[in-house]
Amino acid sequence: MRHGECADGDQGVERGSLTVAGVVLSSVRRSLAFSLADSYVGVALQLASTLLISRLLTPTEIGIFAVAAVLAALASTFRDFGVAEYLIQEKNLTDDKIRSAFAANIAVSWLMAGALFASSGAVADFYRQAGIADVMRIQAINFVLIPFGAVTMAYFRRQLNYRPIFIAGLLANITSFIVAVGAALAGLSYMSLAWSGLAGVIVSVAVSIVMRPRDFPAWPAFKGMRDVIHFGKHASGIYLLGQVGKNAPEAVIGRALDMAGAAFYSRANGLMEIFNRLFMRSIMQVCLPYFSQAAREQQGTSTVYLRVATLLTGIGWPFMLYVGIVAYSAVRLLYGPQWTESVPLAQILCVAAILELPYLLASEVMMAEGRVDQSSRLQIPLQGLRLLGLLLVFPFGLTGLCYGLVAAALGGAIVSHHFLHRIIGLRFAAMISACLPSVLVTLIAVTPVALAAIAVGQNEENFVVFFAAGSVATPIAWLAALRVLRHPFWLEVCKLFGQARVLLRAGR
Fold first, then answer.
1. Rounded to whole angstroms, how far apart are CA atoms 391 and 397?
2. Structural domain spans, the chain
3. What distance separates the 2 farthest-apart alpha carbons in the chain?
């Protein structure tokens, strides 16, 4: 029987359950490899697109798309309706449950598509930018199409089968890049970004349909939707609050200041998104199935979470601190001289990201434990702190806004730990102990580039050389620190490469 296919045709029989222990860890590593490969290709194409788009479009044009994208992201929280998470964590997944999840996804997604389309004119009037309406209407089409691939992709994630997800992501990213650059060169302005997003969705959905198992339920059904709705209302609350907090800065800046200000913030935050796209999206996609499997098998969820936090900070903290140090060179190289106002914003946002990182997976582990209600409640103080931080310091401008996000990140870490202590018994001393190796690795990794920044600085004449040298020295110092200190991330990399060698030998 092929991986990903049903063990029994009976609709009441659970589809493809995973085995445990070593097999699970092996599947996690293999899945993470595919997911990271997908992310690396996506980031490479995104960076190439950014290099070109930032020079082809003005800050105002990019700001128009950024604001419209924020509103679409808010609507997407309802569009998804927690369907993917429901399918992943469901203990007894049957064909009927898959069909009901598909039906719920279509109903909510199409409702959100209609809302986006209908409200586009009013939103454009509110921001005094007619172009926002055009972008939102294209994004509404995305909402109509996405459900036809979302359920299949969620099923692949549950099975830790990331090969089809990798293929879909690869083809979608290539298509989006070609359309974005081509449309921008053709003079389509901010609409080039809207059309590229639609092209990527079309390709991704088409691939998911082609690659799904032959016996996979292809049609929606409303039977058994009660469980989906019960889970989805909590999950939607979680992601809605998360998206409100995440995207509030662009929305507020776009209205209170101007589109250019929103674009400067968006570009600064875009440097943080490089890490999210390189690692966090891949890790989060794999960790929810991993946490869920640990919960189903009654493994120590706290221990599992601490291990993931160690791995995450071991790669995330060095990256964030490095970006903060080379921010001028990175912005100048990636975006061009007209974007240097983003530099201090990016440096402050790095501090916020460092504070948030150990607890970014708090919601996922609580969902895996079946406590989606607590995961939803966690978002209320988290995003409340973020919005409060914005409101209190916004009169001090873009820089003040970013400092407010730092304060909110610190408060959010405290609140998240409180919830995790209550739900999975996570102790603060254990979290400190888990993250301490990452502190040492981070300090060693950034020492060369930090000393160079102090000695020679960064300016218009040397930013290319400085960035290139830092991009070589920092990874070398980081890898050396991982190996010398025997950081768990190094051990995982060794195991991943060892597994890859075994698979290559077996394929000969």
1. 11
2. 11-268, 300-508
3. 69
